[in-house]
């Protein structure tokens, strides 16, 4: 393949591509209908001219027929008057009009056929134009729908859906972590409160057991002898048992005061 052939093909391909890109379907449809309507106008003019020519030929044919009839009557009249020479001239004139009439009849038949053909073509073109207008409206609607769909797809392609969904997932994860921290804090607060009450119950049990143990170890005092409180006893005692009893009594008194608080 020669260099010039390759260049020619490249140029042709680029020109075809430019033409295809420059073609607007809607405008092309409008232009096609305009051209068809121009053809319709020209065809109507052609039909009108053909009909006018047909009528003119038909008139000439009828005139020739009238002349034939007239010279036929003239020939008969001349013979009736005994003028054979005049009758011959009348018949010659009749023959001239007969030849003209024959030619006009042939032309008239051809023109009639042509007019009928043009009329059929006119009707077909009008039907095609009507059909083209209907198709044009349908194609315009389809073009509008296609453009809208193309724009919508372009918008969808332009949207950063993955980034948006990732942002939603991150926010959801943060909310879940915050809810988990709040739940953990509530559980820890409840556990601390329960542990405090458990310690109180445990210390109360120990105190009760200690008091019961001390009461079991303390000697019974005489029924009719009142026991003076430790601050009213003035005589010191050197007995260890009595010293323990005084301490226990004071401890018991303090414990009762705490219980009453």
UniProtKB/TrEMBL annotation:
This is PspA/IM30 family protein. Residues 47-81, 108-149 form a coiled coil. Residues 230-243 have a biased composition (Low complexity). Belongs to the PspA/Vipp/IM30 family. It comes from Amazonocrinis nigriterrae CENA67. It holds the Pfam family PspA_IM30. Residues 220-229 have a biased composition (Pro residues). InterPro entries: PspA_VIPP1. Keywords: Coiled coil. Residues 203-246 are annotated as: Disordered.
